[in-house]
Amino acid sequence: MADKEFPVDEFDRLASDRKVRGAHRRQESNRKWWIALIAIVVCAPLLGWGIVQWAGHRSDSTGDEPTTSVTAEATATPAEESTTAPEGDEETTEPAAEPTETEEPAPEADLATPVQIRNASMVAGHAAAMQQTLAEAGFTAVEANNYPNTSPAVSQVFYPDESFEGTALAVAEALGIPADEEHVIEGEGTEGTGTVIVVLAGDLG
């Protein structure tokens, strides 16, 4: 009966797969746990330090950007001020003074120029009186006689060319004749004579 073998069933297979140890089996060593604990203790601070360094580096790189923009704005402000400055200079710039017209000096009179006084006023002695007036003014070559032609409306002074203009104006001033184009005239038959001719009309007293 004891030697009788029974066929292998499901329970026999489970029993053969299970490894049962006795009560006096060797205890497993805790060295692996200690190694893992030491690794955690050592690596955790290093990992934390690395995270702190990485975060600090990102914050530094992020903080540089506002500084750059502020610097750019600060740099741009003087540029705008320097661009605006010339406008103030234009407003304060005084306009250039307009050139003043310089009066040409009056032609000088030659008191030695021959002067002929012709009386057309029908007043006796009028030419002689004007001759005396010119002599007192410094003229040294003055002659007086009558005017043979029709008496003009106003007294006039005639001179040969522009080189005698100063002398003619001085004669007119001394005799009280207006020094304008109606009374002091260039030409009129005196060209080439070298003489200033005065025609006295009735307008002079």
User: Helical segment tally?
Assistant: 4
The coarse silhouette is rod-shaped
Oligomer: single chain
Helix vs. strand class = alpha/beta
The gyration radius over C-alpha positions equals 67 Å
H/E element order: HHEHEEHEE
Q: Biggest β-sheet: count, sense, barrel?
A: 5 strands, mixed
Strand order of the largest sheet: 2-1-5-3-4
- The fraction of residues assigned to DSSP E strands is 5-15%
Mean pLDDT: 77
DSSP, total strands: 5
Low-confidence stretches: 67-72
Helicity, as a percent range:
40-55%
**What is the name of the CATH class of the domain at 115-200?**
Alpha Beta
Query: What would CATH call the architecture of the domain at 115-200?
Result: 2-Layer Sandwich
Distance between the termini: 197 Å
> Under CATH, the topology of the domain at 115-200 is which?
Alpha-Beta Plaits
What does this structure look like?
It holds the Pfam family LytR_C. This protein has helices at 10-17, 31-92, 126-136, 165-175; strands at residues 115-119, 142-146, 156-159, 184-186, 196-200. Among the domains are: 34-74; 115-200, 2-Layer Sandwich (Alpha-Beta Plaits). It has a five-stranded mixed β-sheet with strand order 2-1-5-3-4, with helices on one face. Residues 67-72 have low confidence and may be disordered. The longest helix has 62 residues, at 31-92. Strand 1 (115-119), helix 3 (126-136) and strand 2 form a beta-alpha-beta unit. By secondary structure, the protein is α/β, with parallel strands linked by helices. It is rod-shaped, with a radius of gyration of 67 Å. It is built from four helices and five strands; from the N terminus they run H-H-E-H-E-E-H-E-E.
